């Protein structure tokens, strides 16, 4: 399969590390010019160096902005007015007893995990539609479908993100632009390592801690291990490519079989 994005510009939010960085690297490998955006300039610069080291001749630019705010979004749009591929990867997560999550935290999760994607799709979709080609991809989570009791607020925000994707896919109908979500399962990132250790003993070596976490908290995983960020990126790069032209309005799973369903 030739996943060729030569001549396309791809923007990945939350791309200074983890899944976002892996996605940006994958898109650069397919020939796209990639734009990394996150809040920290130093971490973005380091991430850009990682992409260039992994992909010879990679075209990488960075924009430091907090796109969960109106001002940060304006900064990004001024620097990058048009893109061909938008990957809304930015998100926050954390464990907290459901009855103890205050209103302000519910609002923060909705603002970062949902409204950020809405604002950027609303900004970039018209240009994609005028050009007759584009991809808007949202990185959702198995928690959108299997709401975890230890982070209900996160799960609800990701459920909303699936609806955002489906609704905007209808808005883009017949235009050559596709809009999809990727349902990522439990994934191995630095932030997730901290999360795992918040639920199992910090005295355990990482491999044992990971297995214990999956056994106790994600027993329905068929993979029985954490997913690597590059495995999420592979699905994103495919959906961003011309080969996925007939896939839109969907929620595609890279969850290790975590969601107990025979539908995608």
Q: How many H/I helical runs?
A: 8
Number of beta-strand segments: 7
Number of domains: 2
Let me know the CATH homologous superfamily of the largest domain: NAD(P)-binding Rossmann-like Domain
List the strand order in the largest sheet. Answer: 3-2-1-4-5-6-7
Q: Estimate the mean pLDDT confidence.
A: 96
Name given to the CATH architecture of the largest domain: 3-Layer(aba) Sandwich
- In helices, the fraction of residues equals 40-55%
Helix and strand element order: EHEHEHEHEHEHHHE
- In CATH, what is the class of the largest domain? Alpha Beta
User: Any idea of the CATH topology of the largest domain?
Assistant: Rossmann fold
Beta fraction of the residues? 15-25%
Apparent shape: globular
For the CA atoms, what is the radius of gyration? 18 Å
The largest sheet is: 7 strands, parallel
Distance between the termini: 21 Å
Structural class: alpha/beta
Runs with pLDDT <50, length 5+?
none
What characteristics describe this protein?
single chain; 7 strands; 264 residues; 2 domains; alpha/beta; Rossmann fold; 8 helices
